[in-house]
Amino acid sequence: MPATAKKTAATATARILVVDVGGSHVKCRLGADAQVRKFASDATLTPQRMVQEVRRIARGWAFDRVSIGYPGVVRHGVPVREPHNLGRGWVGFDYAAAFGRPVRMVNDAAMQALGSYRGGKMLFLGLGTGLGSALIVDGDVLAMELGHLHWTKKRTYEDFLGKAGYARMGKKKWRRRVRRVVQDFCDALLPDDIVVGGGQADRLKRLPAMARLGGNADAFDGGLRLWSDSSITIT
Amino acid sequence: MPATAKKTAATATARILVVDVGGSHVKCRLGADAQVRKFASDATLTPQRMVQEVRRIARGWAFDRVSIGYPGVVRHGVPVREPHNLGRGWVGFDYAAAFGRPVRMVNDAAMQALGSYRGGKMLFLGLGTGLGSALIVDGDVLAMELGHLHWTKKRTYEDFLGKAGYARMGKKKWRRRVRRVVQDFCDALLPDDIVVGGGQADRLKRLPAMARLGGNADAFDGGLRLWSDSSITIT
Fold it and tell me: Which of B140, B144, B233 lies closest to A190 in CB terms?
């Protein structure tokens, strides 16, 4: 990229506030700044309180657009199901009105996937409290809930690969399961590129064949791309 | 569609030969004709013999383009893995040269999915010898091999839902499994529309909620759409 184009792109994203809503924390970053600010979330968090807290910790930051990564199903920019790990009222809430700014919202795993996307058909798996997933195909971002597939009669993939599975099975078994699941999803979804990210990804000793590790800043970089990258479509 | 546009579209597809390559039969149709011609296939079928036999049974049909549904993984119009149930040599074979016509090739489940596609995000599941699958998102056709996901340590979804599973479990259990798998894929892939097709679909007593039944001619109609519908992209 020529220097002027780079500068223009940076200027264009400098005033975007990216909000990553999670089950244990809500994290915010302004543009490409290194600093991340956060507050603790829990099963009682409503969208009203989320916006209020975000505005509080973002004090002093000048932003005119907001990107939100939401831990649940989003269609066409709005949540269509209540989140599993937070309070109620997220479906139907007017985020743009509450922030007083234009808002783009996407599933949290999809936002993180976008941050590491380099082209082609990419599968993202996010190892966190649960198991996030997204598929990006030639710039089209498809949120998925692959973790909800059943692996046994009673348990889903998420039950094995999420935090509860780690606690139940221990590190060694968990690592083996992760490798096997990545291989399975790879055989089933036929991606060119696989990214494993999320807060628990550093518990892996080695990555499955074909996969690369996501970066810590992926969610925030993905949030900027929601506004700056015209080749991206959210479905 | 106005009558003239309809006539033009029909004329444009009248000389397309659609070939549906399967593990037990290879079936052909010319344009939107009602007549389907076929010959038996088996685990020794090579692409050379397929082309030779297709040309033989298509005698008298005037075609200038060919669509092929292939029972295996296709990327960017060419097979990238040998088929499970046929002979060898399918990867790297020059289909256009062998037919002496331009050829468009796609995964067989994807071609069938395309025949029943009405827009949005559609999941197709094909109950046949194995378990075919495809996802179409706003016209982008993604072939998938969801049947290869493991359901138990040793068995995949295909092992349960394919013909072998039917024989092993019996009708009642198989029907219950199908409903459960459709529900699982629905929760995981979040489609707006689900089509269940394939030769074994008529063994279902009732369809899972949200799903509709594919039609017998879907594969052929999908093959025509590969040429006639500019809103379709194969990835």
Answer: B144
State the Cα–Cα distance between residues A162 and B80, nearest whole angstrom: 34
pLDDT 10s digits, A76-103: 899 999 998 899 999 999 999 999 999 9
Question: Is B28 exposed, middle or buried, given 0-12, 13-18 or 19+ CB atoms closer than 10 A?
Answer: buried
Q: Which residue in chain B has the smallest CA separation from A233?
A: B138
Contacting residues of B for A233, CB less than 8 Å apart: 138
As to burial, measured by CB atoms within 10 angstroms (0-12 exposed, 13-18 middle, 19+ buried), residue B34 is exposed
Q: What count of Cα atoms within 13 Å lies in the side-chain half-sphere of residue A115? A: 29
Contacts of A133 (CB under 8 A, 6+ apart): A109, A123, A124, A125, A126, A143, A144, A145, A146, A147, A185
Q: Assess contact for A102 and A66: CB atoms under 8 A.
A: yes
CB-CB under 8 Å, B140 with A137: yes
CATH 3.30.420.40 in chain B: give the residue spans. 3-111, 118-213
Task: Write down the pLDDT at residue B5.
Answer: 52
**Cα B33–Cα B214–Cα B219 angle in degrees, nearest 5:** 40
Nearest CB among B121, B137, B145 relative to A190 is that of: B145
Cα distances from A27 to residues A24, A48, A141, B123, in angstroms, run 10, 16, 22, 34
User: Whole-prediction pTM value?
Assistant: 0.87
* Strands A131-137 vs A140-144: parallel, antiparallel or unpaired: antiparallel
Condensed to tens digits (0 to 9), the pLDDT of residues A19-61 reads 999 988 999 999 999 999 999 999 999 999 999 999 999 999 9
Residues 48-107 of A with CB under 8 A from B: 73, 75
Flag if B142 and A137 touch (Cβ within 8 Å). Answer: yes
Residues of A in contact with B145 (CB under 8 A): 187-190
CA dist., res. B186 & res. A82, Å (int): 17
Alpha-carbon span A192 to B187, nearest angstrom:
24
B10 touches A: beta carbon within 8 Å: no
From first CA to last CA, the distance across chain A in angstroms is: 28
Fold held by B3-111: Nucleotidyltransferase; domain 5 (3.30.420)
Residue B15 burial by CB count (10 A; 0-12/13-18/19+): exposed, middle or buried? middle
On the question of pLDDT at B40 being above 60, the answer is: yes
Architecture of domain B118-213: 2-Layer Sandwich (3.30)
